[in-house]
Design goal:
alpha/beta; Helix Hairpins; Rossmann fold; Alpha-Beta Plaits; six-stranded parallel beta sheet; 11 helices; 47% helix; 15% strand
Length: 342
C-alpha cells in the first residue's frame, strides 16, 4: 500500500508540473456537462446510460447502442465531440510526450534516481561489464540495483538493468545517483593519460565520494602500487592495484604451478568455490581458531582461512591455532555458495 501511495503522489506531482491537472479538470467539467445535458434533453435515459453515452462519445468509441434523438441531445453530442475529443487528445499526447521525455532523460543519465542499498560504479573502462557480471553472479547482490556514473553521453549498458548517471564524479552526480543511500561504491581507473595522471583522477574521485558520502564503503582500483598511500589518505576503504596483482600472479605461476588457477576460482562468483566474509556464528564465539575451523567444516562445509580481528584492526591469514575468536570478528571462509546467516 505505501508503494501505491508513493506512485500516486509522483503521478499527481507530474500532472501538476505539466499543467495536466487543469486539462483533466476541464475534461471532468465537459463530461459532467454532457451527462447533465443529455439527461435534460433525453429524459428517457437513466443516469447510468447518460454517463455511458458521454464516455463513449468523448473517447470516440461510438458503440451506437445509445444515441440522442432530440435536437438538443444531438447538439450536446456535437459539443462533446468537438471539445471533449480535443482536450482528451491534449491529455493523452502530453502524457505520452512526458513518458518519452522521461525515458530519454534516463538514457542520457540526466534523471535523479531513487534506488537504495545499491552499488555505485564510478567510471567506465573495459572491465566494467565483467564487474557487473561478477556482481550478478553473487546471490547476495544478484537483485541489487547497479548505478553507473560515467562521463558518457548515454548509457553504454542500456538493456542490462543498469541505471545511468551522466557526468564526472561530483557532489551533483552523486546526489542524482542517490549515493548517500548506496551500500558500496566501486571506483574504476581511468583509461586515458599517463598512469600517475589516471591514478590522480581516481584518488580525486575517491576523495569526492568520501567527502560527500562519508559512510559509503568505497573500493578503489589503482594502477601504481606507489599510490596506495594516497588512496588511503583519500579514505578509500579498499584499494586494489591492478598491475601488482597481475605481477604477483605471474610469479606464482612460475614458482607454484596451479596457484593462479586456484586464486582465479576463489575470486570469481561465476564458477567453483569462492571466498566469503561472514559474521562469527554463535557456536564459534570464544573458541580457538582450530576449533572454529573444525566446527564450520563439519556443520556447513566451509573452510576457515582467515580472521578479520577487530581488536588488532587487521586481517590474520591462517592465524595461530590457539587464536581465540571474538564475537565482533569477521571470518573469511571458502565455500561453494554464499553461507546462509540468521
Amino acid at each position: 500500500m505505501p508503494t501505491i501511495l508513493v506512485l500516486l503522489r509522483r503521478f499527481a506531482h507530474q500532472m501538476r508540473k505539466e499543467h495536466l491537472d487543469v486539462v483533466l479538470l476541464v475534461l471532468v467539467v465537459i463530461a459532467a456537462s454532457g451527462v447533465l445535458g443529455i439527461s435534460f434533453f433525453e429524459p428517457q435515459l437513466s443516469v447510468v446510460d447518460a454517463v455511458w453515452w458521454t464516455l463513449v462519445t468523448v473517447t470516440t468509441v461510438g458503440y451506437g447502442d445509445i444515441y440522442p434523438t432530440s435536437l438538443g441531445g444531438r447538439i450536446v453530442g456535437i459539443l462533446l465531440m468537438l471539445f471533449g475529443i480535443g482536450f482528451l487528445g491534449m491529455l493523452t499526447a502530453t502524457l505520452a510526450s512526458t513518458f518519452v521525455e522521461n525515458r530519454r532523460q534516463e538514457g542520457k543519465g540526466m534523471k535523479p534516481l531513487s534506488s537504495t542499498g545499491h552499488i555505485v560504479l564510478c567510471g567506465w573502462n573495459y572491465k566494467a561489464r565483467e564487474i557487473i557480471e561478477e556482481v550478478r553472479a553473487d546471490e547476495k547482490a544478484r537483485n541489487r540495483s547497479i548505478v553507473l556514473i560515467a562521463d558518457l553521453p548515454e548509457n553504454p549498458l542500456d538493456g542490462e538493468q543498469v541505471q545511468f548517471v551522466s557526468g564526472v564524479v561530483s557532489p551533483e552526480t552523486l546526489a542524482r545517483a542517490n549515493a548517500q543511500e548506496a551500500e558500496v561504491a566501486i571506483v574504476l581507473a581511468d583509461e586515458q593519460g599517463e598512469v600517475h595522471t589516471r591514478d590522480a583522477k581516481t584518488i580525486l574521485d575517491t576523495l569526492t565520494i568520501k567527502t560527500t558520502c562519508p559512510g559509503l564503503h568505497t573500493c578503489v582500483e589503482l594502477l601504481d602500487q606507489q599510490n596506495i598511500a594516497h588512496g588511503k589518505r583519500a579514505k578509500a576503504d579498499e584499494v586494489i592495484v591492478t598491475g601488482a596483482m597481475s605481477t604477483n600472479l605471474l610469479v606464482q605461476a612460475a614458482l607454484n604451478r596451479g596457484v593462479p588457477l586456484l586464486i582465479n576460482e576463489l575470486v570469481s562468483n561465476r564458477f567453483g568455490s569462492a571466498l566469503y566474509t561472514i559474521s562469527v556464528p554463535q557456536t564459534c564465539v570464544d573458541r580457538s581458531f582450530v576449533d572454529a575451523l573444525t566446527e564450520l567444516k563439519r556443520e556447513q562445509n566451509l573452510l576457515l582461512v582467515a580472521v578479520e580481528s577487530q581488536a588488532q584492526a587487521r586481517f590474520l591469514a591462517n592465524p595461530p591455532s590457539d587464536y581465540i575468536i571474538q564475537a565482533e570478528d569477521q571470518l573469511i571462509v571458502i565455500g561453494q555458495e554464499r553461507p546462509k546467516q540468521g
